[in-house]
Each structure stands twice: as C-alpha cells, then as structure tokens.
C-alpha cells in the first residue's frame, strides 16, 4: 500500500478554469504556472484550435445543443492547412522527374492527397456546423468529466523537452532520471526522494540491459568511462 | 499435408529453450499490459520494437505474438474486476463480467474467460493454418493493379466501417498518408515534404510514429484527465468453474469462435463487432435470459472467445497479404519491414520457416497463457494497484528511450513530441487512431503498387484496373463508400414499403 498516497495536491492548488475554452499548446513548458496567464497567443498551433476566429456563427440550425464544440473548427483549419502545404510543396519544391519507368512521377500523389485533405476539411466543417462532435477517447484512468488539466500536460512536455535537450550532452542515465522524476512529479507524485531512487535505478537498469546488453543506441554522455 | 509438415517443423523450431523463453516473456508482458490500464498490446509492441533490432527476428516475432494474444487475456481481467475496459475489444465482457464479480462470482467469470480464450485461440489458430495457405496461393496470382485495389479497400474499410464518424476517420487516414509521404520518393529519388531537413530525408521512422501516437499521445491524454481515485478492484481468489458453469459455457465458446475468426480476417475487422454480436446471440439463445444484465456467464464466455478468435483471424490477412486489420497487426507489419522482410504473399514462400515457427508459437503461447492466467489471476489483479504517476511516467520514459534508440538523434525526440501532441489532439477530438497507423504503413506501399500498375499502362488510368479481382474490389469499395446513400434511398424505402404492405 506504499504507493496509495499519491497526488496529495490534486484539486487543491489549481485555479478554476473555464471548461470549454482551450488554450493552444505553445512549446513553453518549464514554468509550472505557464497556463495561468490567461491570454497566450492563440493561433500558435492550429490542431488544438482556439476559439475559431475564421468561421463565424455557422452553427445556426443545431438548436439547443449543449455547448457546441467550436474548437473542432481548429481541426478543420489544421487539415486544410496541411493540405495546402502538401500542394505547395508538390508544385514548387519537388523536381520534375518523369521517366518512361515512372510515367506518373513524384507529384500527382501528393497533389491528390492535398486536394482530398482540403475536401475532408470542408466536409468536417459542415459536419461541425450541423452539430457533429467527436467523442473524446475514454479509458480506464480517464475521467472525462473533468476539464483538460493543462498544468499536468505542460509539466510533462517540459520534462520531455529537458530530456530531449540534455540526452546527448549528459547521457541517458542522467537525462532519463530527470525525465522519469519530472514526469512522476508532473503527474502529482510528491515522494521526491523515493522517486529519485526509482528514477536512477530505472535509468541504470535500462542503460545496462539495453545499451550494453542488447546494443541499443543510448548515449553515455558525461558518464562515459564511469558506467 | 505439406502444411502439416511445415507446422511440425515450426513446432520443432519453437521448442528450443531460447524460443520458449521468448514465448513466455511475450505472454507474460502481454498479460501484464492487458491488465494494466492505459497501455495495450499495440503500444507495447511499438515500445519494444527498437529493442528487438539486436535480436533474431524469429524470437522477436514470437514475443510479439505472445504479447498480442496475452493482451486479449489480460484485458478481460480488468473488465471483470474493475468494470472499466481498457481495450475496445473487452467492452462487452465488462457488461456481464463485472456484474458476476459483484455478485461474488468473479472466480467463475475469470475462469470462463481464460478457458474460453484458450479454446477459441486454439481453434482459431487451427483455422489460420487451414485458411492461410490457399489464400496465399490466390494472392500470389494477383498483379499490381489488384494489389492497389486491395490496399484501397483496406483504407476505406478501416476508415468507413469502424468508428462512428466517417469524416473523422478519413481525416485520420489522410494525416497518416501525409506522414507516410514524407521523405525521399522511392521511385524518382525526389524529396517530398522534407522542407530541406536532412533528418526527414529518410522519412519518419514508423517506430517513432507508432510510439508517438500510441504511447506519448495516450500518456498525455490520460495525464490531462487523470482520475483522482482509481476504481474499486473487486478482490478475487483462485478462478474455478462448477459443472453448471462448464455446461453453460462451452456452446458460447464455440459460437464466439465462429463469429470472431471471420471478422478478424476481413479488413474492416477488429474485435468490437464480433464481441458485440456474440453477446446479443448468447442473450437470444440463453436458457436464462433473465440473468442477462445481472451477471450471466454466457455473456462472458461468448464475447471472450470471439475476442481471441478474432485475434487469430487478424493474422490471416497480415501473413497472407501484408494487410493490417488492427493496430497491433499494423505495428507487427512495421516490425517485419524494419527487419527487412517484405510483407505480402511471398513472405510465406520466402520465409517459410519464420512464418510456421510463428504459427506454432501461437499454440504454445495459448497454452502458456492458460497456465499463467488461471492460477495467477489474483497476482495479476494486484497489478491494478500500481500508482498511476509511476505507470505513465514509465510509459513516457520507455517511449523516449525507444524513439531515441532508432537513429540515436535528439531530433527524433522533438518529432516524437510533435506526434504525441497530434495523438493527444486526435483523442481530444475523437479522431480514430487506427486509420492513421494503417495510412502510414500501407500508404507508401499502395503508392508503389499504383505507380507500378500505371507504369505498365504508360500512365493511362485504365492501368489501375486489372483482372476481375480488382473489379470486384472496386465494386465493394463503392458500396462501402456509398452505403449511407444506399441506406437512405434503397433500404429505407424498401423497409417502408414492407411495413405499409
């Protein structure tokens, strides 16, 4: 039962957030309070979509539907953007390379894909306007009645980025330790010392079994020669 | 009889101590991840892929098959004892299984699930042995246009038949195809969507995509909605069944197998439809219909058998045609490609020993799973108490390790995070994951076959239509795509006429 005392902080220190509005995910983690500043630049990442500025009030006929999920227009915008990007890439960057062995060349498939993406984006937008919603994925540990906990997510992304930056200079054992410890912290575990021990043990075990035992690519970093 | 000989050779290959060890390792890991919330067989295989580069492909494949089968066994434990099915395939099991557990019959529910899974798994694997070789014979006779059509069908089927929203399915598929496009075009050598980044020239590694979408995306999504209190785990002792339970279980097992195998084998398969069908069938045929909804053992036995039979069915198109019909099969195909095998009908002739050893290992794995699950169920149930921060921190930890290990470049970690955020967004907006993975894996192959077909015709579009096979397949695709219209203009008026008449 040693592990049952996790997440002591849950629900206590988080500021109440408006549930429907979602901030986008800017890659600035590190500071835990990042999402508390309410007005981050919204259009940084279209996939999560902010409240859509482009499509205004097409949702007329959905009557008394409970809170239409407008952020979905962000997905449509994202799809259309990707489609446009592919077409631009195909028409400007890909060279002309048609030969008798390949009468089609490298261009038509991307262009077709781009067009299809834009078509799907439009149909998607129509579906959203008519009140269509996607069902968020459920799961054993997923509590969909709570709003998205951006603090946890941003902290996790932070731990992830720290690892990505440090893995080459410091080596897997150190960066992996930081990653595991940071992720456990982000997820609400507050047994700092015990987590550190677990993190170090896990990093060492994985390094020795996989890097040295199975020949998997993991850097030793500054500990080169010591491990 | 040739196949029987091959199968026996396969058995001879499997029973080496090393291969048995990997089979045991696979089924143990598989059961564990099936029991554990938030982590499934597809994610596990993806996480372990980089680790297997140093292993013999046969051993890695035996382990993966064990994980695949084991995940099906483990999933039922969670549904029965916790009433929150992790995999979509065990949703139906939870309906009656958890009621049984609450009524103090958890032991019987677990027993009928485990024994039923064993019976179904064994019969379905036998069916696999019988069905696959003729299918391979047929598949070898297909040309590039037919292949192209088959792949189109599998795109359409995975996208349009499964899931509740077609447009969201197609969005997911197209994103996957786009990811598959990145890198140097295999035919012309031109860079596509690389934006001048040398790290993207070889394309995004399938491992990074699978780990990013399955592991990182899932971990971030769960972290965003983590339950404050995990559910109540119903305590359980040694699983066992009384005489009455056996009598009520064996027919549902067989019927579940009959439903599960064919559904697993068709491109739009998966375990959701057959488990649900099995449940309704048992409900209709039961001599104790009043018990349904209050913990009827038939409602556990049938769907669990269906679920395992469909797992074996999934391997038929995977081995015979190189087509994935569920997420785990998709990642296993990616694994084959990584090891340098060409998935498709030729795999059976070129790598005969590998394939038959794999099939033989399925029989062994099934037996091991029965032994592992029946006496050890209480131990597995204890896994459900793992503190969630450790579980999800561990997933991110191993995801990072695996993705880095592919190319040993930190660039892949940033890519992994981007894909994780994509997976997060898809879960938030209800975009299905499977079409994306199928798109990434099959997309490049479909383009290759399509261009090969057009090469034969000198670029004329009629080159895409080959023999009668492609005609039939295009017709099926058309029906699937137009089904909503068919439903509106043909089925509904007909039904209306029947009602009024």
From TrEMBL, chain A:
Pfam families: TctB (PF07331). Coiled coil: none annotated. Keywords: Membrane, Transmembrane, Transmembrane helix. The keyword Transmembrane helix applies. Residues 76-219 form the DUF1468 domain. The chain crosses the membrane at residues 71-88, 109-126, 153-184, 196-218. It comes from the Bacteria. Residues 1-67 are annotated as: Disordered. This is DUF1468 domain-containing protein. It comes from Micromonospora globispora.
Automatic annotation (TrEMBL), chain B:
This is Tripartite tricarboxylate transporter TctA. Keywords: Membrane, Transmembrane, Transmembrane helix. InterPro entries: DUF112_TM. It comes from Micromonospora globispora. Signal peptide: none annotated. It comes from the Bacteria. The keyword Acetylation does not apply. The chain crosses the membrane at residues 20-49, 109-132, 138-162, 169-186, 206-224, 318-341, 353-377, 389-407, 413-442, 463-486. Residues 20-437 form the DUF112 domain. It holds the Pfam family TctA. The keyword Transmembrane helix applies.
